Amino acid sequence: MLGLQGRRGLRGRAGPAIARAMHDIRFIRDDPQAFDAGLARRGLPPQSAALLALNERRRALTTELQSAQMRRNEASKAIGQAKASRDEAAAQALMAEVAELKTRMPALEAEAAEIASELDGALAALPNLPAPDVPDGADEESNVEVARWGEPPVFDFTPREHADFAGPLGLDFEGAAAISGARFAVLRGGVARLHRALGQFMLDRQSGDHGYAEIAPPLLVRDEAVFGTGQLPKFADDLFRTTDGRWLIPTAEVSLTNLVRDQILDEGALPLRFTALTPCFRSEAGAAGRDTRGLIRQHQFDKVELVAIATPEQSAAEHERMVDAAENILELLRLPYRRMLLCAGDMGFSAAKTYDLEVWLPGQGRYREISSVSNCGDFQARRMAARYRPAGEAKGTRFVHTLNGSGLAVGRALVAVLENYQQADGSVRVPEALLPYMGGLTTLEPA
What we know:
- The protein is an alpha+beta fold.
- The chain has 13 helices and 19 strands.
- The longest helix has 37 residues.
- The radius of gyration is 27 Å and the shape is elongated.
- The relative contact order is 0.15.
């Protein structure tokens, strides 16, 4: 039987997953000041000196081990020569030397493995470096508004938050709490139909209009997958883990991005574009007291995810293309929004550059995040060993760039539709773009 554990540490198959290069140690060695400057923009102290010291110790041990191996082979060969020439003293001395080397080499191997593990662990805990055009800043207060679309609707009544009026429409938090506890919801009737319509509408637009290949991915993944996209080891507490050692995906980004794990792709096949509509599961360990009412922050929610795999030369344009695809959904639904460029201190762990789309919520009287679209550069690719072979090159490979974004979060889109299309009598008009999915239902009426 499949069960869930409360404390979700990094165990089981974590060992092989950690054995990846997270940051390019050659870049750190060649330009330690630039590396530390990038970390400083993330609010972290300098790390290059400690990392390079570990790397030099690892290299020294590797060299010493190789030298010991060569000398053992030479001495073993010389023993036979000494015995053939009946030089017993030389043979005994060589045998003693070989015995000492056989004793010393396992200790060198163990120390080298320990240092390598320490170096990998230190690198794995460090976030991606921000791109040069990302603004400085410690938190959301330093994010920069790039664009705004649509005007907030004007009501002839005081608009309410969805949690205050959508109960009679079929939004049931009490029933969910009785079954599962806080941060869950039961959707009934028209609200359930509207939620389903939103997910299908988004998936159809992203696969049909924007060229993302539809995928139905696994919802349970191994350690290697969540390590590859950067959730492990640092954010294990934000995830749910099953009793058999797998993880419930916090986003389809994990499954979709890992489709190219350990692969060497042809440059001509890039960019690859994937989309999926899946449930997502998050423990919200760090969200105590935040958004405790309503659908904004749930343990389980649906989301249409967008993932692109590109060359370094393609990734900037692919990032803008992905943002446009997410914005198109909001525009078709006639939902006012703004695009925000996140500052270095507010970006996710794996991101080099992120745009947030924030939709207008009349009940709260402010914009709230509904999509986050990130270019991760080669950060995730290094963790996954995802590479491509440039056209015309027979041997050399380069790391791909990975990008991901919400196109969109279905539950938050439902909130936005409920609040922007609410009417004075508690009913909600169905957006025109969703009518083909609603089976003739044009208005949600309170029971």
